[in-house]
Design a protein that fits this description.
This protein is α+β, with helices and mostly antiparallel strands. The protein folds into three domains: about 10-15 and about 265-455, Vanillyl-alcohol Oxidase, Chain A, domain 3, CATH 3.40.462.20; about 30-150, Uridine Diphospho-n-acetylenolpyruvylglucosamine Reductase, domain 2 (2-Layer Sandwich), CATH 3.30.43; about 155-265 and about 470-480, 2-Layer Sandwich (Uridine Diphospho-n-acetylenolpyruvylglucosamine Reductase, domain 3). Helices cover about 25% and strands about 20% of the residues. The chain contains 15 helices and 18 strands. The strands form four sheets. It has a seven-stranded antiparallel sheet. α9 (about 280-290) packs across α11 (about 370-385) and α11 (about 370-385) runs antiparallel to α13 (about 430-445). The longest helix has 15 residues, at about 430-445. It binds flavin-adenine dinucleotide (FAD). The site of flavin-adenine dinucleotide has 37 residues, from β3, α6 and β10.
């Protein structure tokens, strides 16, 4: 069962949690080559910006081989062949069984720089792992050096300035726990164990984007370790090309060690939920499409087909209860044959925890619900009954109005972000799941040239080029300038092209 921010029902505060998370690889101390300098993740605040011990570039350059690298790190280090290696290389999506050369649990910027330097000198690709929740399994790669930021998680909230700063491995639950304590929030995804950076750098499919823009639109500053080991500050007046590129371009440009977010007061969402089951799915979907064609910025909406229970639609209105009640009447009238389940919700840092599993996904960004697209999705729903989920979430308001070239994130204009997903537990079901996702993902392409890069499988350059569209040449040029050797290629890869 797939849960995303688009599913408004998940925002109720007291959701039951499933019992397993794969946040932390199963590290044991004796598994590691360790310099004895390991610092806990509780580095002092501002720690994303400071090294715990000053060290010169000569020391960084001395990491001539893997053993030296392991000895030089403050955090722990695990090589291929060490006991515990197999547990540690697992990521959330168990469909990806990859073997990195080594894994470094970085606890500060020195560690990150050493790893990057090693990768560059020895032409070993660097795979960045934050929360480990990439559907495409990008946090681990065959033969790569993994920079694992899972222990690099400090959060600071400046209530007066309404800004939160997080280190590069922070998860959503850690960010929102800290901001909600100050009565503030920033648009984020629904699952508390997803990495903040992995979500934000790709754009973000987030709650509240109609009012405030999506996650990357609220990223007001960042710190980045580039392929040549430089530590750069990014923001409106600092390294603006990189600041533009990381807002949508994913982990292509280096390791982001700090992210600064704009914060907003918490609003209550007033929700109406309708269950349609298995009949008339296409018709319900078209009615949903009509309702979301034009909406106030306060509105959030999702159409879902659950493998077990069938189709449903949910609309949430953020803020004023009277305005919400008046608006939701429209939905009740459109779906009058169905009971409306009314509720209110506020952001919940844990969100919904979706247990680690094997899953196939594909995505599409539709400009509306055309008859053709609704037909494909309705057929997909029936064909995938019992094993295929579909979610279609509205992107509108501020997130839609920001200019296509203002950031690298290409999903501007009002639209519906679709994700098809199918999970399996028995190996013999793998082919069925992959085939369903591939068949209906491909069938949607005539209506969707774009897709959210975090909702698609590892994809060839031509698909990535098509998705980024007008922004691709600029991204490729910035990639060539800062990562000409494509050190950071365990991602939806933007190829370095100096000519752009
Ligand atoms: C259960 C579940 C729910 C989800 N819900 C949502 C949702 O509501 N909204 C949404 O938008 N997405 C959602 N996603 C998708 C999610 O945003 C992406 O999978 C994202 O890549 C996860 O980031 P991560 O750090 O956890 O993953 P990882 O696998 O650790 O990282 C994935 C990639 O992100 C990049 N990256 C991560 N951290 C950094 C960093 N510090 N510096 C540079 N690059 C970095 C790297 O390229 C890395 O390989 C969900 C995924 C799952 C599995």
């Amino acid at each position: 069962m797939l849960y995303l921010q688009t599913d408004l029902a998940l925002l109720t505060e007291h959701q039951p949690l499933t019992d397993y998370r794969i946040d932390q690889p199963h590290w044991t101390r004796r598994d590691f080559v360790n310099a004895g300098l390991a610092t806990a993740c509780a580095v002092a605040l501002g720690a994303c910006a400071h090294t715990s011990m000053p060290r010169g570039s000569a020391a960084i350059g001395a990491a001539a081989d893997l053993d030296d690298l392991g000895q030089s790190l403050h955090g722990r280090f695990l090589r291929d062949g060490s006991p515990g290696y197999d547990g540690a290389r697992k990521v959330w999506n168990l469909a990806y069984d990859r073997h990195p050369l080594a894994m470094a649990r970085c606890v500060d910027i020195d560690d990150v720089r050493r790893c990057v330097e090693f990768g560059r000198r020895h032409s070993v690709p660097v795979a960045i792992r934050g929360g480990g929740h990439s559907y495409a399994g990008f946090g681990v790669a065959d033969g790569a050096l993994q920079v694992d930021l899972g222990a690099f998680t400090t959060v600071t909230v400046d209530q007066g300035r309404r800004v939160a700063s997080v280190c590069g491995g922070t998860r959503i639950r850690e960010l929102l726990t800290a901001t909600l304590a100050a009565g503030l929030v920033t648009p984020m995804g629904s699952c508390g164990s997803v990495g903040v950076a992995g979500l934000t750098l790709a754009g973000g499919d987030t709650a509240g984007r109609g009012l405030y823009g999506t996650a990357c639109d609220n990223l007001i500053g960042a710190q980045l370790v580039t392929a040549d080991g430089a530590v750069l500050e990014l923001g409106p007046q600092q390294n603006e090309d990189l600041y533009w590129a990381i807002r949508g371009g994913g982990g292509n440009f280096g390791v982001v060690t700090r992210l600064d977010f704009r914060l907003y007061p918490v609003l209550t969402s007033h929700n109406a939920h309708f269950e349609f089951g298995w009949s008339g799915i296409g018709e319900a979907m078209r009615a949903f499409g009509g309702l979301v064609r034009e909406t106030p910025d306060e509105v959030r909406a999702v159409f879902a087909v659950r493998a077990e229970t069938g189709a449903s639609a949910t609309c949430g209105f953020l803020g004023d209860p009277a305005a919400a009640a008046a608006y939701l009447e429209k939905w009740r009238a459109a779906f009058r044959r169905f009971d409306a389940k009314m509720s209110t919700s506020t952001p919940n840092p844990e969100g919904e925890v979706w247990a680690s599993t094997s899953v196939a996904v594909d995505g599409a960004f539709l400009e509306g619900v055309s008859d053709g697209a609704a037909g494909v999705l309705a057929r997909a729903a029936i064909a995938g009954r019992g094993y295929g989920d579909i979610l279609m979430g509205l992107s509108s308001g501020v997130a839609a109005r920001i200019g296509m070239t203002d950031t690298a994130y290409p999903l501007r204009g009002t639209g519906l972000s679709v994700i098809l997903s199918s999970e399996w537990t028995r190996p013999e079901d793998r082919a069925r799941s992959q085939q369903w996702v591939a068949e209906y993902g491909t069938a949607l392409r005539p209506w969707a040239h774009r897709a959210y890069v975090n909702y698609i499988p590892p994809s060839p350059p031509e698909r990535i080029r098509e998705i980024y569209g007008v922004n691709y040449p600029r991204l490729a040029k910035i990639k060539a300038r800062y990562d000409s050797g494509n050190l950071f290629r365990s991602n939806q890869n933007i190829l370095p092209e100096a000519g752009g």
